From TrEMBL:
It is found in: Nucleus. GO terms for biological process: apoptotic process; negative regulation of apoptotic process. Residues 451-488 are annotated as: Disordered. Its main location: nucleus. It comes from Pygocentrus nattereri (Red-bellied piranha). GO terms for cellular component: nucleus. This is Apoptosis inhibitor 5.
Length: 517
């Protein structure tokens, strides 16, 4: 390998590839390049030289292209991290013509490295060749996503989800975006939850899918993953989890022009009847409240329903379950066992959903509910309303004058949420007490940011989307079934605070209602 060193000295003294002291003058034929390729079998110094010279003269020896790429790949897998980094750094120089997809495939495999500097270098190299030939690079990435090892697949998907959105428009052309959409659909046939989240993020970021028709395509894609044509097995955590995650993913896509009808219909027909039997996929998640929140957020975007009356009836019956009758009080005081369980967040969600769908059939309570049942319903509404008015006053007094850090204490946070919930319920109950019932009032759901949701209609043409967390698809196919199920963060749907709030609110609500008697 002294010859390799001698070559380096010759080159560094000003020879270069052509001219008086050129590489060709020195060796005259491809045997010289073969010497460089053989350098990968030498020691660290020879390997470092080879890592530089193999790509340097690669284009001059097309007949040795395969051998050169393989030699460089050997260096990319060397035990010496400095040699690996040097070899990876030079890989984009091989990315020309028909070699580019292969280089992309190699770089994608190299994403599995645990060395952070090396990983960043692989990312940089992929970005570099992506700008040269986007489709060729994507071909290598998707090849590994579909056929590669799990760790390579995972990191290739993450690369797409984080890097595509940073590419300039002249790189991410309509043709390239179409290719991404087509290949991503193939991957979505068999994905885990986290993969589904990331891939939908990739698709949501495509420019041509930002239109109404594009968002409708994305909704159709989520519908396919959600298995809405199948009945829900409430005891199957995978099925429940899939529905939750797909609904969360679809939620931001809904608007006045992109309807949530199929999801709302499915919730009313298959989920609400089994609400109490649902098995939560996450230990700390209040699955019933989560379902009701998602239904409430979707309901404003519901279009025409085939079974509107039946779905309203299901909502009505479910609402009765969560709105108790006033406790009997024969002796002037209530026994502890008689205290009703007042679940205000459940009632807020159900009332809101009923209110939204009720707009489509405003005579439902008058024409479709018999007199006795309607009377019973109004008694329940009145019980809630009486207690709410007292409790709202108490909350306002408790929060009066508090600003900044004072509102950030755990107790005051609960009171602020409680005030939003009780105000919403109060407004909706007032609408239903009108004769005939009215559906004109507008409220912002208590867990949604008031400023954003109220300002959005003024800034747009009705294409606002609901808030939601990206979701997950649980694989129906065996190859990915063994993977760990993705547990989404609870975020704004935190069940810990929620359960404490309901308990606190229930006690305070009962005390407030008792003060009226």
């Amino acid at each position: 390998f002294k010859l390799v060193r001698h070559l380096f000295i010759k080159y560094s003294l000003g020879g270069g590839l052509y001219g008086k002291n050129s590489f060709y003058v020195w060796f005259q034929h491809k045997d010289a390049y073969q010497v460089i390729l053989d350098g990968v079998k030498g020691g660290p110094k020879e390997k470092r030289l080879a890592a530089q010279f193999i790509p340097k003269f690669f284009s001059s020896f097309p007949e040795l292209a395969d051998a050169a790429i393989n030699a460089q790949l050997d260096l990319c897998e060397d035990e010496d991290v400095s040699i690996r980094r040097q070899a990876i750094k030079e890989l984009p120089r091989f990315a020309a013509g028909e070699n580019l997809p292969r280089v992309a495939d190699i770089l994608t495999q190299l994403l599995q490295t645990d060395d952070s500097a090396e990983f960043n270098q692989v990312n940089s190299a992929l970005i570099s060749i992506f700008k040269i030939d986007p489709k060729g690079t994507l071909g290598g990435l998707f090849s590994q996503i579909l056929q590669g090892e799990d760790v390579v697949r995972e990191r290739a998907i993450k690369f797409l989800s984080t890097k595509l959105k940073t590419m300039p428009e002249d790189v991410m052309t309509k043709e390239v975006e179409d290719y991404v959409f087509t290949e991503t659909k193939k991957v979505l046939e068999d994905v885990t939850g986290e993969e589904f989240v990331l891939l939908m993020r990739v698709l949501s970021g495509l420019k041509y899918l930002q239109t109404v028709s594009g968002r409708q395509q994305l909704v159709e894609l989520v519908v396919e993953q959600a298995f809405l044509e199948q009945a829900l097995n409430p005891a199957d955590t995978d099925s429940v989890d899939r529905l939750l995650q797909c609904t969360r993913q679809a939620l931001p896509l809904f608007s006045k022009n992109v309807h949530s009808t199929r999801f709302v219909t499915y919730f009313c027909e298959h989920v609400l009847p089994n609400l109490s039997m649902l098995t939560s996929p996450v230990a700390e998640l209040d699955i019933q409240l989560e379902i009701l929140k998602l239904l409430a957020e979707m309901s404003p975007y519901c279009g025409d329903m085939d079974k509107l009356e039946a779905n309203l009836m299901m909502l009505f019956e479910k609402l009765l379950e969560f709105m108790p009758l006033p406790p009997e009080d024969e002796n002037g005081e209530n026994a502890v066992s008689e205290e009703p369980k007042l679940q205000f967040s459940y009632v807020e969600c159900l009332l809101f959903s009923f209110h939204q769908l009720g707009k489509k059939l405003p005579d439902f309570l008058i024409d479709k509910i018999n007199t006795e049942k309607l009377k019973d319903f109004k008694i329940r509404l009145q019980y809630f309303a009486r207690g709410l008015q007292v409790y709202i006053r108490q909350l306002r007094v408790a929060l009066q004058g508090k600003t900044g850090d004072a509102l950030k204490t755990e107790e005051n946070k609960i009171k602020v949420v409680a005030l939003k919930i009780t105000n919403n319920i109060n407004v909706l109950i007032k609408d239903l007490f009108h004769n005939p019932p009215s559906y004109k009032s507008t409220v912002t759901l208590s867990w949604k940011p008031v400023q954003k949701t109220e300002a959005a209609p003024k800034r747009s043409s009705g294409e606002d989307t609901g808030t939601g967390t990206l979701g997950k698809k649980v694989s129906p196919l065996p190859r990915r079934d063994a993977r760990q199920i993705y547990n989404p963060p609870s975020g704004k749907y935190s069940a810990t605070i929620g359960n404490f709030s309901y308990e606190y609110l229930s006690v305070q609500m009962f005390k407030a209602s008792s003060q009226l008697t």
